[in-house]
Design a protein that fits this description.
alpha+beta; 5-stranded antiparallel sheet; 10 helices; 5 strands; globular
């Protein structure tokens, strides 16, 4: 199974099958390496095509949220941890923002234009959704903390590239690309493209039925998107997939930045742990 992961606060999270590890640069300058438990597993469902896509998405979101929370505690232990109700409020806000801002609002705004052609309507709606997403990424990229997360995102991709090519050192990773075809950013943009096609099966002109249809079809979109990316990772030379995958690779230029050597060191610490068969379940901390 290929290694994947995500950038977190002052570090990266990497996963290789059931083994998940978090590596974070602490305020003292050390690198804290800590294994994380997988959130939940349904092996039988994970083997069913199209059904495993929505499950993988939920697993990814749950694990990513846990990694972000823990990375904040490791990087800034002096800050008081959020309470359970505060975390619930944040999760609710994120869900409302994502579903409302990126799924329902574009459909509603496009409906106000009064486009009669169903295909044209879905193309315009998808374009509005892409514009919203790009504006959002462009706006948050100016925040210093987000920029550092984007640098760790680049470090994660560089060390995975180096590992896949048989290397695992700072000089080896430094020369690799910060863009990787299995990145979740590619999933997001491909999700939008697939949504344009899937949502066209809801022909009703009623805006509210159309919005409810969008919500009900989200698992279908997630399932199709996952299978396309999965096939693409196994057949990278498939010419007919490239038009679908290239936009996601271009979008990573928004979500990755060139990392510093000390950020690459953090990503390498996670890589060494997750690829070491002898690594145990205990946390460790290394110095500069």
């Amino acid at each position: 199974m290929p290694i994947g992961g995500q950038a977190v606060i002052e570090g990266v999270m990497l996963q290789d099958g059931p083994k998940v590890v978090l590596a974070v640069r602490t305020s003292e300058g050390a690198v804290a390496v800590e294994p994380l438990p997988t959130r939940f597993s349904l092996p039988r469902l994970e083997r069913i095509p199209f059904a495993r896509g929505p499950l993988k998405l939920v697993q990814m979101l749950a694990l990513g949220w846990a990694a972000l929370r823990r990375s904040a505690e490791l990087a800034h232990p002096e800050d008081a941890p959020a309470s359970r109700w505060e975390n619930l409020a944040i999760i609710l806000f994120v869900v409302v923002f994502l579903v409302g801002g990126f799924m329902l609002l574009p459909a509603y705004l496009t409906g106000l234009i009064g486009i009669g052609n169903r295909i044209l309507f879905n193309l315009v709606e998808g374009g509005v959704r892409v514009v919203f997403f790009l504006c959002y990424l462009g706006a948050i990229s100016f925040l210093p903390d987000i920029r550092r997360v984007f640098q760790y995102h680049g470090a994660e991709h560089k060390v995975v590239h180096a590992y896949e090519e048989g290397e695992a050192s700072v000089p080896d990773a430094r020369g690799r690309s910060p863009i990787h075809p299995r990145c979740g950013t590619s999933f997001l943009l491909l999700f939008v493209v697939v949504a344009i096609l899937v949502f066209s099966v809801v022909p009703t002109p009623n805006i509210w039925i159309r919005l409810v249809g969008r919500l009900l079809l989200l698992p279908v979109v997630a399932g199709l998107t996952y299978e396309i990316l999965r096939f693409g990772s196994r057949h990278p030379r498939a010419w007919w997939l490239r038009p679908l995958l290239v936009p996601g690779l271009l979008l990573q230029r928004f979500t990755t930045r060139e990392p510093s050597d000390d950020q690459i060191e953090v990503a390498l610490a996670a890589l060494r742990y997750v690829t070491d068969p002898a690594s145990d379940r205990s946390a460790s901390t290394t110095g500069e």
